[in-house]
Amino acid sequence: MPTTLRCKCVIVGDATVGKSSIAQVFHSDGSHFPKNYTMTQGVEVLVKPVNIPETTDSVEMYIYDSAGKEIFSDLVRRFWDHPSVVIVVFDCTSETSFSSCKKWLERIRSQCPDIQIPGALLANKIDLDQRRVISPKAGKELAQSNKLEYFECSAKEMQNVDTPFFYLANEFHKLYQERVELFDSLT
Amino acid sequence: MLARLLQPEAKFVKPVLTLLCHHKWTMFDVALSSAGAHIALATSSDEKHPPENMIDGKAETFWSTTGMFPQEVVIRFQTMMKITNVHICSYNIRKLKLEASEMDESTKYDTIAETEIDETDSQLQQEEIQLGEKRAYSLRLVIESGYDHFVSVHKVVVSGQAVHQ
Ligand SMILES: Nc1nc2c(ncn2[C@@H]2O[C@H](COP(=O)(O)OP(=O)(O)OP(=O)(O)O)[C@@H](O)[C@H]2O)c(=O)[nH]1
Ligand SMILES: [Mg+2]
């Protein structure tokens, strides 16, 4: 019998790193890349189901695309209660956006310090390889030291955008199965 | 009876205890499906762990939430009840609100209790909520937050009796 899980996936990172582009490319199955920059001024929620391989289960991803501009930080935090999973995005051509990742992650994790939140670190804009300043190695190291899984993508080229979402949906599904086993063992 | 309870063999002790518990609950539990109550709504449904498991009288079966908060479930009684006490067996619930409605098919609910339940480690939470005396046709449980992504509710026992109009 199929089960549908609900997963609140919060996307954070500095302004202009491409969070909305990633969310929209994933949500539209690669049919929509917003070429012109529209600053997100709060949180935009997009919903998309993901099927879990080798099961009949699916995970409904509630994607919370959050503004990166600091002036919205108090506002967006109000939407971050009970995050299920998190994607921290940086722009691989921007050193600043890379060093902000820790701050973003801490803000999410401080919402619920005792709960395990599966997370992904995502390097975007890898199509701009001439201007790239953050190496895959540096990305992987940061991910590892913060218990995140590392991914790279280009929202513009629609390359590898789905992978972090699929990874997190699967992790969330695994967590659910573990918890149900625990519930079962309590009586 | 006592002599049998004191018998060391588990096979004797267990059935007697079960019988006692069963007897105690069925006298007063108006939320049991066997007493005519049913689940009118639930915000999560894994068909392997459906919300009906909360009112089947068994602690072994449970309703599992399937992600995100808040989570809600509405238990509709067979008729208007006077309820005095709610007992909940659960795991990982943090903030819980109880609401009652005096109407059939109503969307108007009054909050009758709010509580924060302590976290337990590898055993069920047992929460006893005294209500004084409240009239209710439906009881809504709102799980506002949890100690983890998912919570389970094994049993909801509502003590009360039918209101005779
Ligand atoms: N070259 C390139 N440009 C991209 C890519 N992804 C996004 N962009 C561009 O980067 C700019 C910012 O993208 P957004 O998705 O709006 O950025 P954001 O992170 O949502 O920004 P805020 O909403 O302000 O936090 C836009 O002009 C996008 O077209 C990419 O993979 N490659
Ligand atoms: Mg945006």
Strand order in space, largest sheet of chain A: 2-3-1-4-5-6
- Low-pLDDT ranges of chain A: none
Terminal-residue CA separation of chain A: 24 Å
* Radius of gyration from the alpha-carbon trace of chain B, in angstroms: 16 Å
Distance between the termini of chain B: 40 Å
Instruction: Label the CATH architecture of chain B.
Output: Sandwich
The CATH first-level class of chain B comes to Mainly Beta
Average of pLDDT of chain B: 84
Known CATH architecture of chain A? 3-Layer(aba) Sandwich
CATH homologous superfamily identity of chain A? P-loop containing nucleotide triphosphate hydrolases
Work out the count of structural domains of chain A: 1
Radius of gyration of chain A, Cα only, in angstroms? Answer: 16 Å
Total DSSP helices of chain B: 2
Global morphology of chain B: globular
Provide the residue-averaged pLDDT of chain A: 97
Largest sheet of chain A: 6 strands, mixed
Give start-end ranges of low-pLDDT stretches of chain B: 1-27
How many helices of chain A? The count is: 6
The residue fraction in helices of chain A comes out at: 25-40%
Count of beta strands of chain A: 6
Shape, principal axes of CA atoms of chain A: globular
Keywords (chain A): Cell projection, Cilium, Flagellum, GTP-binding, Nucleotide-binding
Subcellular location (chain A): Cell projection, Cilium, Flagellum
GO molecular function, one term (chain A): GTP binding
Protein name (chain A): Intraflagellar transport protein 27 homolog
Draw up the topology in text:
The complex is a heterodimer of chains A (187) and B (165).
Chain A: E1 4-12, H1 19-27, E2 43-51, E3 58-66, H2 73-77, E4 85-91, H3 95-99, H4 101-109, E5 119-124, H5 136-145, E6 149-152, H6 162-185
Parallel strand pairs in A: 1-3, 1-4, 4-5, 5-6
Antiparallel strand pairs in A: 2-3
Chain B: H1 2-6, H2 10-28, E1 38-42, E2 63-64, E3 71-91, E4 93-101, E5 110-116, E6 125-146, E7 152-162
Antiparallel strand pairs in B: 1-3, 2-7, 3-6, 3-7, 4-5, 4-6
Bound molecules: guanosine-5'-triphosphate (GTP) and magnesium ion (MG).
Magnesium ion binds next to helix 1 of chain A.
